[in-house]
User: What shape does this take?
Amino acid sequence: MPRTAVIDLGSNSFRLVVFTAEPGAWWRRTDEIYEPVRIGAGMGEGGALKPKRMDRALRTLDVYAHFCRATGLDPRDVRAVATSAIREASNRDEFVARAQEVAGVEVRVLSREEEARYGYLAAINSTTLSHGAVLDLGGGSLQLVRVDDRLAQESGSWRLGTVRMTEGFLAEGASGKKPLKALRAHVREQLSDAAWLATSGERLVGIGGTVRNLAAAAGHRAGLPSFGVQGFVLEREALAELTADLAAMPVQERGAVPGIKPDRGDVILAGAATLEAVLEAGAFEAIEVTEEGLREGVFFETHLAPADPPLLASVREASVRNLAAQHTRDLGHPEHVAALALQMYDALAAAGAHAGDPQERQLVWAAGLLHDVGYAIDYDDHHKHSRYLILNAGLPGWTPREVALIAQMARYHRKGTPGFGELAPLMGDGDAERLTRGAALLRVAEQLERSRDQLVREARVHVDDGAVRLGLVAGDDPSVARWAAQRHSDLFESAFGRRLEIDPG
Assistant: This one.
């Protein structure tokens, strides 16, 4: 099965990520090695990479090279890219030559424009961003890209990375109001040449370890359930409160804050203050987080070739189909369950049995396609396994609340009274009813397709005062489907307040 490895030689950390893909069907990250090399530490503006940092970097690359050989990765399928610190080092050529010798592959030093482009590709293929901006905050630099109609329009790169800002303004543990104020002012001044930032729209999507760590910490503080930060929206006020709390702590305690990795504790405050300044400069009220990054951007360029730009047609649909294809050999059954559920959803909306919200309809479709992915673990309790996979595999393009709703609809497609449990803090008004409707439709649709042969082609809905009558259009005798669905009608009746009657046709 085709594999692609991406080695990201970042200013703060080196990371090797392996992606496995079934062309035209699915892809996923299948391995990862991370090392906080900090190759850009102490080099200053236009300075040289320090010998100790270079040695650590080369030792890390030697480990990565051994890993690639041990796992049978063809060097032609390994892409190594270097970013800000290496790009700007006065001894760049010396390091790159040594790195290529150790790694056994070409190391491509990305230009500022290329680095920004890969961040853009990661963000645009993992969110529903159409108009707005993409932020990539690394250890050495900050990239911003203006997006219009999903296409990159303008971009810029500034030496505002977390390591640089820490060394420049918060060295030796400084964290008072004066150095933080100076840091924010410096960021705003540097961004003054990007007049387009303030007119790029209301939506800002962020990538990078600092952004992910701050989102995880803010989610923990808010008491939200944790299954990753994909789609998490970090509000400006929450960021300000988190920044103030981090500033009040000794440096050594910041890495122990839930959500913040220990190796980022010394640079996380500078990252938070830098992000605050960007939000202010662009008049953004929040930043939406994606777990994808530059490495995924490099992968997408390969995986989606020859498309230029390499963009998924629909991120939401692609992420659902990607997860379904990974765990389901034959998609005929889940596709048909989803179709039957949507037939009933649309007909009930037309009859006034519910509002027919288009977003709720998407949730029902997604849950229908994913309701049986738990079979990949085991048949017993596969509805619970489906819930686990949906929550933990991630669904780029969907918010945490939407992912939780999809997971719970799948969880209750067989039996039980729908509820949210520990996911309740994510929910809003009307979500309990949305869950019950979705689970009820999936439960009936699953029973109509109980024989897994698409015998029941259509479920025609007729609504009168006290009942919903389903007329089944089938290729043969649908007695089993009618019997099975009638036995599971209680949740449907609770969801729609009407008795369910199933006719043969």
